[in-house]
Automatic annotation (TrEMBL):
InterPro entries: Calcineurin-like_PHP, Metallo-depent_PP-like, MPP_PrpE-like, P-loop_NTPase. This is AAA family ATPase. The lineage of its organism: Bacteria, Bacillati, Actinomycetota, Actinomycetes, Kitasatosporales. GO terms for molecular function: hydrolase activity. Residues 198-384 form the Calcineurin-like phosphoesterase domain.
Length: 389
């Protein structure tokens, strides 16, 4: 079970495995004692990015091999990792992590700070691990049964790592794959800080294709492209309620495909996407009209819409971090983060559980207390006029 994003390149010594690592993530190295985790970490990551359980034992017990200090050592490890993740820094955990419970705590830590947990597994033969430990003065006395137990636990874990919650799993089998692997850092999908605009941010269209075309024309767009290179940014809720949802989708899908526009999902796209995937949803708030309109379209078009919605990113960070766009707004602690919690807030916002005189949910006024660095532009809640808070 290797991650589907792993790529290989030919070399004189064999194939180089390319391991993609998201630039803000918690990377967990998994392997028996002697499998080469620390060497691998030093080769591919900065010293300051690596938190070693052995080092943490040394901090609390003056002895990196004092197993009686393990609980306190992992408390220290989790604390440091949490501080780094809170600061938005990639963090690598160098520990055996062959036991499900130890991995579970790290996955929970990643979720707490809304970053992706990634596993890199070093599946090295028992004999190699034992030989390496024998050459280390501090490990020479390690019983062979400890390594054997580690490897048994590792092998039992392999098929469950993604189910446990790791978003990416890279498995390196044998010394050659470990030594030839190359780690490549990937920008988060929501990180478009290199794009500086100018931007035209367009709110909830709700199936009004004619009005969208009129607006684009007034903004200077010609057949979906701007002659001066401006970028349209759609804040979601393209669909439902209006008379021509397919027309809106065609225009926005065409503009995003040609890089003339960006689009984040709204709660209405989320619901339509679930219907297109065959899930049961209530046909309310305009979805029934959208379904009727899409049933008049080809199966191929409906499939294209499903793929388009599935590929939408919860929010974008733009203009060197000075602009954030999401459908329902986003507090600063979630900017550039990746989790179900972040996506939920970006789609729906926070509600108080009450409704207003129009029957709409009362939204928690998070924006009134917002003092973040970036300007956050969002739609979702109907207001008579756009305002800066």
């Amino acid at each position: 079970m290797t991650n589907q994003n792993d790529k290989g390149t030919g070399t004189a010594g064999g194939t180089t495995r390319i391991l993609s690592v998201t630039d803000l993530s918690l990377v967990v190295l998994v392997g028996a004692s002697g499998s080469g985790k620390s060497t691998f970490a030093r080769k591919h990551f900065k010293p300051t990015e690596i938190i070693s359980s052995d080092f943490c034992r040394g901090l609390v017990a003056d002895d990196e091999n004092d197993q009686s200090a393990s609980k306190d050592a992992f408390d220290v490890l989790h604390y440091i990792a949490g501080k780094r993740l809170a600061a938005g820094r990639l963090t690598v955990v160098d520990a055996t992590s062959v036991q499900q419970e130890s991995r579970k705590q790290l996955i929970q830590l990643a979720r707490q700070y809304d970053v992706l947990p990634i596993a890199i597994v070093l599946d090295v033969p028992e004999e190699v691990c034992a030989e390496r430990n024998a050459t280390r003065a501090d490990r020479a006395g390690m019983p062979r049964r400890v390594i054997q137990r580690h490897i048994r636990e590792l092998r039992r874990s392999l098929r469950h790592l993604e189910r446990d919650g790791f978003r990416k799993v890279h498995i390196l089998r044998g010394v050659e794959q470990v030594e030839s692997a190359q780690v490549v850092r990937e920008r988060r999908f929501n990180d478009l800080t290199h794009l500086t605009g100018p931007f035209d941010i367009i709110g909830d269209i709700h199936g009004c294709s004619c009005e969208l075309e009129t607006l684009l024309g007034k903004l200077g767009y010609v057949d979906g492209a701007h002659p001066e290179g401006r970028t349209a940014v759609f804040v979601g809720d393209l669909v439902d309620r209006g008379p021509d949802t397919p027309g809106v989708l065609r225009r926005v899908m065409s503009m995003t495909a040609s890089a003339a526009a960006l689009c984040v999902p709204g709660n209405h796209e989320n619901k339509l996407g679930r219907w297109l995937m065959g899930r049961k949803v209530q046909h309310t708030h305009g979805l029934a009209e959208t379904i009727a309109q899409l049933e008049g379209e080809s199966k191929e078009f409906r499939q294209q819409v499903a793929e388009f919605i599935d590929g939408l990113v919860s929010h974008y960070v733009l203009d060197r971090g000075r602009l954030v766009v999401s459908h329902a707004g986003l507090p600063e602690k979630y900017h550039g983060r990746t989790s179900g919690r972040v996506r939920s807030h970006a789609l729906y916002g926070d509600t108080t559980g009450e409704t207003d005189e129009f029957g709409l949910p009362v939204r928690y006024p998070w924006a009134e207390d917002y003092r973040g660095r970036a300007a956050v532009v969002y739609g979702h809640t109907p207001v008579p006029t756009a305002t800066w808070l």
